[in-house]
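Ops channel
N.P.: pipeline sanity check, posting one input/output pair.
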């Protein structure tokens, strides 16, 4: 019997609790929420995703709505939630304080400018003034109308293009400038109107059978770490753990029960699926999930790989080898009963999340469909009697900010192609499991303890700042336990503050790995939630909670924090490179000393390209202050291949310059021309075709397609940059090191 290829999309919609429980002083309503992301993502991302899907009734999907997100949506709909951005937006122009004006200039461009600011001429005009002339100039020179327009556009730009045919919204977009307080009040009313449709639309589509809505533990905690922070050492045996071991497994059924009851109240039925926060699983959490009544959970292919002790390799096109292991549900067997689990295809999910936004919509959709068609062919060739299920699961909100028109052209092209392909069948996870119950089994105790990030918990524990936060949480949890009279019934404030503090997001932003211009606010919110526990118990607040968990000053060197998709124009757009790795060159000792013309090196990747950027001292000119030739050389530490030495005169015989390399890209900084070469026998270099892009303006930017290098996914490689004049070695960077890169 031949089966279609079953495909399960799961979109995860989540925001942490931005609602502050207070910091020891009476809060005005405008201080109630520290950040606006529930309101802004609510108008841009949650409703349009399912409205677009509704136009393609053959396509069934799953959407996960985290309780902490729904709680905050309900506050905004009721008009009781106010954040500093909203308060400023509803303040008459002439009453804006100096501090508010500073805040507006600094934060009302918090958006991807390529997709949310540049398409709107007036918004783009104000953005360019701030970028080119600086915040101080804006403070000194802006008129009230400039502030009024910026307040309006910050809110308008976050309204999804799907709603632009609304007559009021269309009129505002056409108006462009000279917005009044009355305009901004009506924009706020429109935001609340859009928010009010989100849950009813999901409920309606679930009742119609096109959608399955799932839930997550109440405030999105990492359940395995609540059970035991020592579980961090399953994937990383030498992990440095917090001073105090957090072991409060009793909090797990509380989070699950609250999510279950919350869901039943909003959707009129019980949930079947659970998205464990950050796809984090461990044997210890399974009994509580089963006892609560959930039928299935999802996790990542890395977790399956660790569980089966099988490394998922991919071919040159990125398709999984031994796909029959990944594209099927499993049954976790425990003493409490069984639980189904599906594992997502990490690469296909990441392509949507991080890469397709940089491609034309139809080309991106065709690429994804092509991967799925390749999987369908493998299924046919295998002559398997068992149907295959490809699970694509990812964040359903943040990626769209990087897509033109919030991803609408991409999703329309994708959904149309998926509807037209007779060999595909899009299903909810429960639909598939009801028709084809899992036959492959995994003993519950064999399940790996890990998350979607490298199959480990290092994103949330192990770093000094993350561990400090766990120690603070442990102290507060012990304090709550010392008050047995403080139950959820008679002291809900203490327990709600605990649940909020146990959320995963605070630990995500602490320490190395992730950073934003709101790190200090996340730090403050975490401590305010802990503060709320002590306050509710009438206990003295530890002095350390009045100090930040970590220093939030700008970091120096750091590794990449996510995929990047820079526009290669030589201008070094700050948002394009904000997740790139960075190496400070100008301050290093030795060859590239403080007077170095090259100040900083940036590097990063996506699924299409490797990216490099060099920042120069102001006014530096190639051929004068700077050598005219840049050589980028690739070293492959784990590959047996033909390699050759650096093809320049006067190269010092010292590591890493005396290594042998396999690929070389020569960039002429005067002409911005390139030559790409590959190593051959007898230390020779042979020309090869390259689609690399280079641009030199205020900085040098370079994009090299992975297709040029022809290296398989997940390969490690190392990089060195050598400067030369007329074929003679001049200098190299980074000093005494190679840049480490992982092919996605």
């Amino acid at each position: 019997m031949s089966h279609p290829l079953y495909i399960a999309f799961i979109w995860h919609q989540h925001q942490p609790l931005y609602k502050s429980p207070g910091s020891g002083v009476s809060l005005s309503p405008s201080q109630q929420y520290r950040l606006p992301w529930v309101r802004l993502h609510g108008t841009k991302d949650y409703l349009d995703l399912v409205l677009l899907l509704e136009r393609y009734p053959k396509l069934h999907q799953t959407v996960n709505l985290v309780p902490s997100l729904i709680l905050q949506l309900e506050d905004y709909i009721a008009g009781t939630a106010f954040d500093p951005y909203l308060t400023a937006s509803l303040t008459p122009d002439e009453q804006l304080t100096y501090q508010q004006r500073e805040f507006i200039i600094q934060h009302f461009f918090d958006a991807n400018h390529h997709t949310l600011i540049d398409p709107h001429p007036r918004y783009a005009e104000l953005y360019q003034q701030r970028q080119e002339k600086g915040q101080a100039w804006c403070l000194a020179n802006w008129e009230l109308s400039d502030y009024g327009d910026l307040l309006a556009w910050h809110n308008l730009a976050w309204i999804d293009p799907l709603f632009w045919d609304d007559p009021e919204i269309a009129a505002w977009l056409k108006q462009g400038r000279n917005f009044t307080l009355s305009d901004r009040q009506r924009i706020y009313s429109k935001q609340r109107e859009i928010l009010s449709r989100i849950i009813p639309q999901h409920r309606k589509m679930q009742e119609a059978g096109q959608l399955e809505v799932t839930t997550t533990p109440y405030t999105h905690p990492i359940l395995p770490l609540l059970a035991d922070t020592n579980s961090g050492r399953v994937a990383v045996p030498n992990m440095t753990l917090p001073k105090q071991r957090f072991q409060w497994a009793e909090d797990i059924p509380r989070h699950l029960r609250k999510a279950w009851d919350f869901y039943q109240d909003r959707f009129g039925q019980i949930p079947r699926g659970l998205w464990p926060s950050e796809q984090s699983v461990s044997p210890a959490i399974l009994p509580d999930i089963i006892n609560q009544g959930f039928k299935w959970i999802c996790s990542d292919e890395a977790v399956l790989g660790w569980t089966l002790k099988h490394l998922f390799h991919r071919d040159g096109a990125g398709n999984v080898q031994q796909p029959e292991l990944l594209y099927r549900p499993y049954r976790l067997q425990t003493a409490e009963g069984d639980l189904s689990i599906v594992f997502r295809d990490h690469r296909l999910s990441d392509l949507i999340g991080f890469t397709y936004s940089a491609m034309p919509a139809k080309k991106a959709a065709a690429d994804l469909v092509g991967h799925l068609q390749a999987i369908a062919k493998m299924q046919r060739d295998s002559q398997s009697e068992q149907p295959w299920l490809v699970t694509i699961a990812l964040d359903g909100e943040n990626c769209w900010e990087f897509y033109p028109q919030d991803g609408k052209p991409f999703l329309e092209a994708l959904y149309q192609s998926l509807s037209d392909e007779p060999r595909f069948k899009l299903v909810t996870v429960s639909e598939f499991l009801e028709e084809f119950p899992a036959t492959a089994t995994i003993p519950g105790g064999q399940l790996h303890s890990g998350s979607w990030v490298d199959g480990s918990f290092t994103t949330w524990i192990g770093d000094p700042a993350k561990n400090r936060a766990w120690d603070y949480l442990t102290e507060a949890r012990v304090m709550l336990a010392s008050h047995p009279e403080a139950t959820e019934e008679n002291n809900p404030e203490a327990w709600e503050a605990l649940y909020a503090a146990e959320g995963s997001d605070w630990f995500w932003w602490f320490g190395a790995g992730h950073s934003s211009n709101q790190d200090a606010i996340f730090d403050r919110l975490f401590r305010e939630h802990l503060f709320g526990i002590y306050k509710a118990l009438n206990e003295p607040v530890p002095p350390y909670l009045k100090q930040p968990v970590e220093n939030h000053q700008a970091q120096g060197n750091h590794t990449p924090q996510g995929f990047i998709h820079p526009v290669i124009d030589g201008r070094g757009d700050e948002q394009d490179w904000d997740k790139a790795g960075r190496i400070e060159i100008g301050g290093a000792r030795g060859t590239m000393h403080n007077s170095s013309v090259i100040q900083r090196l940036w590097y990063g990747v996506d699924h299409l390209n490797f990216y490099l950027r060099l920042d120069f001292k102001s006014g530096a000119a190639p051929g004068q202050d700077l050598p005219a030739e840049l050589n980028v050389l690739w070293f492959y530490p784990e590959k047996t291949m033909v390699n050759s030495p650096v093809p320049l005169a006067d190269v010092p015989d010292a590591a890493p310059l005396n290594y042998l390399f396999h690929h070389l890209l020569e960039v002429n900084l005067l002409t911005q021309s390139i030559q790409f070469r590959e190593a051959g026998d007898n230390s020779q270099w042979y020309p090869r075709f390259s689609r690399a892009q280079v641009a030199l303006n205020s900085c040098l930017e370079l994009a090299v397609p992975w297709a040029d290098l022809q290296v398989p996914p997940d390969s490690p490689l190392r990089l060195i940059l050598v400067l030369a004049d007329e074929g003679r070695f001049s200098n190299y960077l980074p000093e005494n090191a190679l840049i480490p890169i992982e092919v996605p």
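N.P.: looks fine end to end. The radius of gyration is 27 Å.
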